[in-house]
C-alpha cells in the first residue's frame, strides 16, 4: 500500500513539475529583429544583399611537419563582406585536440575579425586533418575551415 502511495506522489510531482516548467513564456527572450534577416520565403529567395557574408582570407592552413607534443596556433582572418552585422554564435572542432577562439562582438559590414585555432599534437601521429565548423547569422549558417599537419615522433 505504501509503495502505491509513493508511486502516486512521484507521478503527481512529475506532472506538476512538467506543467510549471513547460508553460513558461518566451516573452523577453527573443532575438532582436534587426539581427534576424532571412530572405528565404515560400515565394523563393529574397534580397540576399542585406545578409552578412563571412569571407576568410584562406580556409585551410597546413602546419607542416610537427613533432608529437607540439602545440601550435594559427590566426584565420576574415571580413564581413555583407550588408549587416556578422554574429558568430559558435565554433566547434572535429576533435578535442583543436580549439577555436573568436570574438563574440558583432563584426560590422566591411570590418575584419580573426579566429585563432590551436592544435595540440600530443598523442597524435601521422597526417592530421581537422575541421572547424563556424555557426553564424549568414546564409548558409555554417562555414567550415580546416587545419592539417603531419605529426612525427621525436628523433631523440
What would your notes on this structure say?
The protein is mostly beta strands and 156 residues long. The chain contains 1 helix and 10 strands, in the order αββββββββββ. It has a domain at 48-152: Sandwich (Immunoglobulin-like), CATH 2.60.40. It has one helix at 2-22; strands spanning 40-41, 44-45, 54-56, 60-67, 71-80, 88-93, 98-102, 112-120, 126-136, 142-152.
Keywords:
156 residues, mainly beta, Immunoglobulin-like, 4-stranded antiparallel beta sheet, 4-stranded mixed beta sheet, 43% strand, flat
Write the layout of secondary structure elements.
Layout: H1 2-22, E1 40-41, E2 44-45, E3 54-56, E4 60-67, E5 71-80, E6 88-93, E7 98-102, E8 112-120, E9 126-136, E10 142-152
Parallel strand pairs: 4-10
Antiparallel strand pairs: 1-2, 3-5, 5-8, 6-9, 7-8, 9-10
Structure summary:
The protein has 156 residues and is mostly beta strands. The protein has one helix at 2-22, and strands at residues 40-41, 44-45, 54-56, 60-67, 71-80, 88-93, 98-102, 112-120, 126-136, 142-152.
